[in-house]
Amino acid sequence: MTATRKIRVLIAKPGLDSHDRGAKIVARALRDAGMEVIYTGLRQTPEQIAETTLQEDVDVLGLSILSGAHTTLFQKIMKLLREKGMEDVLVFAGGIIPQEDVPALKKIGIKEVFGPGTPTSVLIEFVQGNVKERR
Amino acid sequence: MGQIEQLVQGVLQGNRRSIAKTITLIENNEPEAQKIISMLYPKTGRAHVIGVTGPTGSGKSTLIEKLIGELRKRGKTVGVVAVDPSSPFTGGAFLGDRVRMQEHSTDVGVFIRSMATRNALGGLAKATRDVIHVLDASGKDVVIVETVGAGQSEVEIVEVAQTVVVILAPGLGDDIQAIKAGIMEIADIFVVNKADRENANKAISDIQAMLEMNTEKTGWKPSVLKTTALTGEGVTELLAKIEEHKEHLKMGALEARRKEKVETELAEAIKQKVAESIIEDLKREGEWKKLAQKILARETDPYSAADMLLKKSKRN
Ligand SMILES: Nc1nc2c(ncn2[C@@H]2O[C@H](COP(=O)(O)OP(=O)(O)OP(=O)(O)O)[C@@H](O)[C@H]2O)c(=O)[nH]1
Ligand SMILES: [Mg+2]
Questions:
Q1: Residue A115 · residue A121 · CB < 8 Å
Q2: B45-250 has which CATH code?
Q3: Which residue of B has its CA nearest to A38?
Q4: Taking CA atoms, what residue in B is nearest to A40?
Q5: Of residues B25, B91, B112, nearest to A6 (C-beta)
Q6: For B219-239, what is each residue's pLDDT tens digit?
Q7: Binding-site residues on chain B for chain A (CB distance < 8 A)
Q8: Element (H or E) spanning B206, and its range?
Q9: What is the DSSP track for B81-131?
Q10: How many Å apart are CA B124 and CA B140, to the nearest integer?
Q11: Which residues of A fall within a CB distance of 8 Å from B23?
Q12: Of A84, B22, B164, B303, which has the fewest CB atoms closer than 10 Å, so is most exposed?
């Protein structure tokens, strides 16, 4: 039997943002790079995001946020992922996140933070280069 | 306990992490997957498997969410497999069905998994069937499979589901024409969704007219129902119809369907195993390249080569 592995990515939007253009652009770019991208729409709670990460058994979780509540939301998500035994998932964040918040986010396990206007090629390279062999 | 035994234990106890990991092994076609399925198999056959298919955007996911809600009210646990096509060019896929199913994403009685077709020729049915086995063995009372009804998949869904629901929407008139060949024979229940829109009644009478021309053989006459998935209107009636079909299957047709499915599964397993082992032997012995060379040189053709191999293997 020949194994056919694929990078599976969940693109999630925590918080109360009212549009998801950026998240969708990222989702499409990763798909076009050959990944399987699960998209769940707007206004996800940390519980929903963590549980979807678990059920879909994704290798990568991309969090997109514009609304400013990122620190608390991301902390909750990372805590729930740890509780569910999903700490090996590669997590990155994008959207509007002030530079001074980035070190704290990296400390809680978010591997990279991308500002608005990051070329999608940078994202693709990041995911391909950092995704772990999980099994 | 080894990794495989642990996963099997976990699935049987309904552990969501174990279910998710096992499905990944199946999707990736890893060698462990087959062992796990063999170990789970005795615990399968309990869930009612509902296939939901129809054209893009007809409201399948929205309606499934409402069905889940209704089933949960009745104390049933639910598994969902939402299948979407992989791009034939990049191999990537956009799996967006969950957008409509968020209401149940943290309910422990519901497990939802998105799956890409990965361009597996006929392999979709196999992978989907195995994922259904996992959800079934994990104790889900109902397993719902969503596929887009275009091309091959609507034919495959009938191989995995006990009750097939075809969801259409008004204004997709051309689509009805285009898909009718494949879909008319497989539907146990038709749904015209988006009944809040104009022309819903026209779509219903169009389908009924088409059904008139069909002669049914199994003693079940497909009916046409009307729903508005956005509001949930018509969903109880749909579930009642699904239950009615399930009861109908119990009267005898269920055994026949099960037998048919097991036969298909067996035939496919044999094809896969036997063909793979022959090809592997050829490759190991270096015969593979020689044969290919002969075909390239037009000294033989693929079919004669296969015939020759078959004769040889029968002699052994
Ligand atoms: N007006 C109206 N819109 C509906 C209804 N049901 C679903 N929709 C909308 O139709 C669109 C498609 O719904 P989905 O549930 O994603 O349809 P689908 O068949 O699962 O689509 P694919 O998975 O992409 O094939 C969404 O914008 C829904 O909100 C309905 O009863 N009435
Ligand atoms: Mg859908």
A1: no
A2: 3.40.50.300
A3: B95
A4: B99
A5: B91
A6: 788 899 999 999 999 999 999
A7: 16-17, 19-21, 23-25, 27-31, 34, 86-87, 90-96, 98-99, 102, 105-106, 111-114, 116, 118, 120, 276
A8: helix B200-213
A9: EEEEPPPTTT--EEE-GGGGGGGGTT-TTEEEEEEE-TT-TTHHHHHHHHH
A10: 21
A11: 57
A12: B303
pTM, rounded to two decimals: 0.89
Residue B100, Cα to own-chain centre: how many angstroms? 19
Tell me, in angstroms, the distance from the centre of ligand 2 to residue B75's CA. 24
Nearest ligand atom owner, CA of B148 = 1
- The per-residue pLDDT for range B63-78, each reduced to its tens digit, is 999 999 999 999 999 9
Treating both helix axes as pointing N-terminal to C-terminal, what angle do B31-40 and B3-12 enclose, rounded to 10 degrees?
40
Question: Among all ligands shown, which has an atom nearest to the Cα of B191?
Answer: 1
The residue whose CA is least distant from atom 28 of ligand 1 is: B59
- How confident is the model over B295-311, as a mean pLDDT? 88
**One-letter identity of residue B28:** N
C-beta separation of B226 from B195 below 8 A: yes
Q: Could you give all domains of chain A from N- to C-terminal order, each with its CATH number? A: 16-128 (3.40.50.280)
Q: Which atom of ligand 1 is nearest to the CA of B148?
A: 25
Q: How is chain B split into domains, by residue range?
A: 1-43, 45-250, 267-315
Say how far apart CA B62 and CA B76 lie, in whole Å.
Answer: 19
Lining residues, ligand 1, CB within 6 Å: B 56-62, 97, 100, 148, 193-194, 196-197, 228-230
Q: Is the dihedral of CA A57, B127, B61, B119 positive or negative?
A: positive
